[in-house]
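Weekly sync, protein design subgroup
Attendees: M.S., D.O., the rotation student, P.L. (late)

Item 1: inverse folding check
M.S. brought a backbone from last month's batch and wanted to see whether the design step gives back something sensible before we order anything. D.O. pointed out we never logged the input encoding, so this time it goes straight into the notes. Structure tokens as presented (259 positions):
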């Protein structure tokens, strides 16, 4: 008799198989509170945009991308209500050593179909039969998946963290670094140096990435590029498209790609 599928994440410890996918029995929903797992998690949105936050940054995955969350990394997940999530849970022993932090991976058409198909397998699938071979192909495809730069690094310094939180709340704010430095009570030079040291980006590039990543959910919903550009703080559509192409290598219309 097939094993009963778990109904709560806590019941997955230990995993019933080294690679486990859930589609129906476990709730495929974003967990907006801080939590972690003893296994690797791959979160993929077939529709909508996932936003995974850790202490180190925000990892944003529109369709054709997925977020790799290592075992033990504390994170929380946000997405719109209509986001269609697929999750895989993988025993750390089943994958080669990888970087310690979260990553955003490109999802090829083959990998996308493997993720979807895997969610249909029973919890106790035959590791020596076709399902086991499918799992091995899936792991090979994950190992080969390219890392993409849909990441907004977050600072640890309290002064900079507060400023970045305000910018996240109002991405269309037009104040420059000088105005923010006066507001924070530090010199512009100090603030500029902090941005580079804590995030690896200049203030201008960090804010640009914040705005562009924040625009992805609206673009995925099919909103007009003009409206998205203005809501993101850009004065012209052409400037928004140019910044988007520079950051992502594609225009806003090309970015989501075929469904």
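Designed sequence read out in the meeting:
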């Amino acid at each position: 008799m097939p094993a009963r599928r778990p109904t709560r994440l806590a019941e997955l410890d230990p995993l019933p198989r080294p690679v486990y996918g859930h589609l129906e029995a476990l709730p495929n929903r974003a967990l907006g509170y801080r939590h972690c797992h003893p296994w690797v998690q791959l979160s993929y949105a077939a529709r909508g945009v996932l936003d995974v936050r850790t202490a180190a940054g925000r990892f944003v995955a529109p369709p054709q991308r997925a977020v790799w969350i290592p075992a033990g990394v504390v994170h929380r997940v946000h997405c719109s209500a209509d986001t269609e999530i697929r999750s895989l849970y993988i025993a750390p022993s089943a994958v080669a050593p990888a970087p310690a932090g979260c990553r955003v991976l490109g999802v090829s058409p083959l990998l996308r179909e493997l993720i979807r198909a895997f969610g249909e397998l029973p919890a106790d699938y035959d590791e020596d039969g076709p399902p086991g071979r499918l799992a091995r192909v899936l792991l090979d495809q994950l190992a080969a998946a390219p890392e993409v730069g849909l990441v907004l690094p977050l600072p640890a310094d309290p002064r900079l963290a507060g400023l970045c939180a305000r910018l996240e709340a109002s991405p269309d704010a037009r104040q420059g670094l000088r105005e923010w430095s006066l507001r924070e009570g530090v010199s512009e030079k100090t603030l500029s140096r902090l941005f580079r040291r804590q995030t690896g980006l200049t203030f201008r590039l960090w804010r640009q990435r914040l705005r562009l990543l924040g625009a992805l959910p609206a673009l995925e919903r099919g909103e007009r590029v003009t409206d998205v550009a203005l809501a993101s703080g850009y004065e012209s559509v052409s400037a928004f498209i140019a910044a988007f192409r520079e950051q992502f290598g594609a225009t806003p219309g090309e970015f989501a790609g075929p469904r």
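Discussion: The CA atoms of residues 125 and 131 lie 6 Å apart. The first strand starts at residue 19 and ends at 22.
Action: P.L. to compare against the previous round before Friday.
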